[in-house]
Write a structure and sequence with these properties.
By secondary structure, the chain is mainly beta. The protein has three helices and 21 strands.
Length: 425
C-alpha cells in the first residue's frame, strides 16, 4: 500500500513482441512516492514479500477465492525515526486478507481487501489499525480493445520518518479514496492507452502534548489524465510517447501557514523499449512541470529521465535496476514541493524451488524548492523466504534505513529485523 503523497509515474512497460515483455505490463498512472520507495514499516514485508505463496484457493463458481493471514514480528531500534534519543520496540503485525479473482474466458473482475493490526510491546501509542479495499475490472470489446475501471479505499498511517508529519502523540492517519477508468487498444503495430483517475486524501488531526495538530490544510483532491502511444518498430523494439496532466486542489486555502498550495502539472516523455536475450528494458527523456496558484511559489520546470532494466543473469538470478524522477507535494513552510530522484537495485536469487534470497538497495534524493533543504536517503536490506508448504511461507528480513538532511536534527538511522509467516487458506 502507498503510504504517502501521490506522484505521477510514466514508467509503463507494454507488450513489445515476446512473452518476457508481456509479463512487465503496468498501469499508465501509478501512485509511487518517496514513502513508497523509502518505506521502512512492516507493510512492505506483509503485502509485497509475501506474494511468493502460490495456491489456487477455493473455487466459488467462476471465481477463485484466496483468504490468507500473515503474522509478522519485528524489532525496530528507532521507532520515531529521530536523530538521537532513539526508542526501540518489538512490534506484532497481524494481517488477514482475501482476494476474489474471476476465472472467465473473457472480461475480468478482481477484488482484494484486508486489515492490518499493528501492536507495540512498549510504545502502545504507536498502535495502528489499517484497512484497504480494491475493486478493478476489465471489459473486453475484443482481444485488442479493453475498457478498464477500478475503485479503491485505504485507511493508513504515515511513517514517523515523513518530513511532513509533526511529532504527534500518535501516528498520523489518513483516508485515501480513488476511482480509475481507462481504455487500451491496439491495431497492427500501434498501441495506445488512456487513463483518468480522481483521488481524495483526508488527513486526521493528531494530539500533541501542547495542542491539537490541525492537518485539514493537507486534505486535497487530485485529478489525473494520462495518455500513452507506442509504436512497435520491430518485434523486439518499440518507441513510445507519454503525456500526463493533473490538478491538485487543496480544500483549505490558504493553509495554516498562509500558502495556497493548489497547482496544475504536466509530464511529457519519449522513450524506447527493447527485449534482448533474458533481458527487457526501457529508457526515456522528457519534461516535468508544475504551476502553483500562489504567487509566492515559482513554477517548477525540470528535465525528466529514467530507465528500467530487468535481466535474468542466470537461470536462478534476476536483476532489477530502476531510476526515475517526480515532483512531490510537501506542507513544509515556504516550500511548494520537492524534486525526488529515486534509484533502485534489486537482486533476486532462487536458492531452490522453495527458497529465495532478495537484496535491495535504494538511494534517493529529495531536493526541496524555495528552502535550503535536501534529504538524501539510503535503504538496503536482505530478505530470505522459504515455502514450507504449498500454502505456507516463512521469511526473515533485515533492513537499514538512513536519512542525511541538510536541516539540523532531521537525520535518522533505523535498523529492523523481521520474522514472517503467511498462510493462504
Amino acid at each position: 500500500m502507498n503510504n504517502g503523497l501521490c506522484s505521477l509515474s510514466l514508467l509503463v512497460l507494454l507488450i513489445v513482441g515476446t512473452q518476457v515483455a508481456a509479463q512487465e505490463t503496468a498501469p499508465l498512472i501509478t501512485k509511487d512516492s518517496e514513502s513508497t520507495l523509502i518505506k521502512r514499516k512492516s507493510i512492505v514485508i506483509v503485502r509485497k514479500r509475501s506474494e511468493k505463496v502460490e495456491t489456487k484457493g477455493l473455487k466459488l463458481g467462476n471465481f477463485d477465492f484466496l483468504p490468507a493471514v500473515a503474522l509478522t514480528e519485528y524489532y525496530d531500534d528507532n521507532v520515531f525515526a529521530t536523530d538521537g534519543d532513539e526508542k526501540n520496540d518489538l512490534i506484532t503485525v497481524v494481517t488477514p486478507t482475501f482476494e476474489l479473482k474471476s476465472d472467465w474466458q473473457q472480461h475480468e473482475f478482481n477484488l482484494d481487501a484486508g486489515v492490518e493490526a499493528v501492536r507495540h510491546v512498549d510504545l502502545a501509542a504507536e498502535n495502528t489499525d489499517n484497512a484497504w479495499l480494491n475493486l478493478n475490472g476489465q471489459y473486453d470489446f475484443s482481444k485488442r480493445s479493453h475498457l478498464l475501471a477500478g475503485v479503491s479505499y485505504m485507511r493508513d498511517h504515515e511513517d514517523r520518518g515523513s518530513a511532513d508529519s509533526e511529532a504527534g502523540e500518535n501516528p498520523t492517519e489518513f483516508d485515501d479514496r480513488s476511482v480509475d477508468i481507462g481504455y487500451s487498444g491496439s491495431k497492427g503495430n500501434h498501441f495506445f492507452k488512456f487513463n483518468l483517475n480522481t483521488r481524495r486524501l483526508d488527513f486526521h488531526d493528531v494530539d500533541s502534548p501542547s495542542r491539537t495538530i490541525d492537518y485539514d490544510d493537507r486534505d486535497r483532491d487530485e485529478d489525473v489524465a494520462g495518455l500513452r502511444y507506442l509504436f512497435r518498430y520491430a518485434p523486439k523494439i518499440a518507441f513510445y510517447f507519454d503525456a500526463v496532466a493533473d490538478r491538485r486542489d487543496y480544500r483549505q486555502t490558504p493553509d495554516n501557514e498562509g500558502n495556497d498550495r493548489s497547482s496544475e502539472g504536466s509530464r511529457y516523455a519519449v522513450g524506447i523499449e527493447g527485449v534482448g536475450t533474458n533481458k527487457v528494458g526501457r529508457v526515456f527523456v522528457g519534461r516535468l512541470n508544475r504551476d502553483y496558484q500562489s504567487p509566492d511559489f515559482d513554477k517548477a520546470e525540470e528535465s525528466d529521465f529514467g530507465l528500467q532494466l530487468r535481466w535474468k543473469i542466470y537461470p536462478t538470478t534476476n536483476l532489477l535496476l530502476r531510476s526515475r524522477r517526480s515532483i512531490e507535494e510537501t506542507t513544509l513552510d515556504s516550500s511548494p514541493g520537492y524534486l525526488l530522484q529515486n534509484n533502485l537495485l534489486r537482486l533476486s536469487i532462487a536458492l531452490s524451488k522453495e527458497r529465495s534470497l532478495t537484496f535491495d538497495l535504494i538511494a534517493a534524493e529529495a531536493d526541496y524548492a524555495a528552502i535550503e533543504r535536501q534529504d538524501d536517503y539510503l535503504n538496503y536490506g536482505v530478505a530470505y523466504s522459504q515455502q514450507l508448504l504449498p500454502n505456507l511461507e516463512f521469511g526473515i528480513d533485515a533492513h537499514r534505513a538512513e536519512r542525511d538532511s541538510s536541516t539540523t536534527g532531521e537525520d535518522y538511522r533505523i535498523n529492523q529485523v523481521f520474522f514472517r509467516v503467511k498462510a493462504v487458506l
